[in-house]
Amino acid sequence: SGQPDTPERQKAVREELINREVLVQAAQKRGLDKNAEVAAQMEMARQAVLVRALFENEVKANPITDLDLQKQYEDFKKSMGENEYKVRHILVDKEDDAKAIIAELGKGGDFAKLAKDKSKDPGSKDNGGDLDWGPSARYVKPFADAVKGLKKGELTTSPVKTDFGYHVIRLDDVRPLKVPAFDELKEQFRQRAQQQQIQKLVMELRGKAKVEER
Question: Which residues 6+ apart lie within 8 Å of 119 measured at CB?
Answer without folding.
Answer: 89, 90, 91, 92, 125, 129
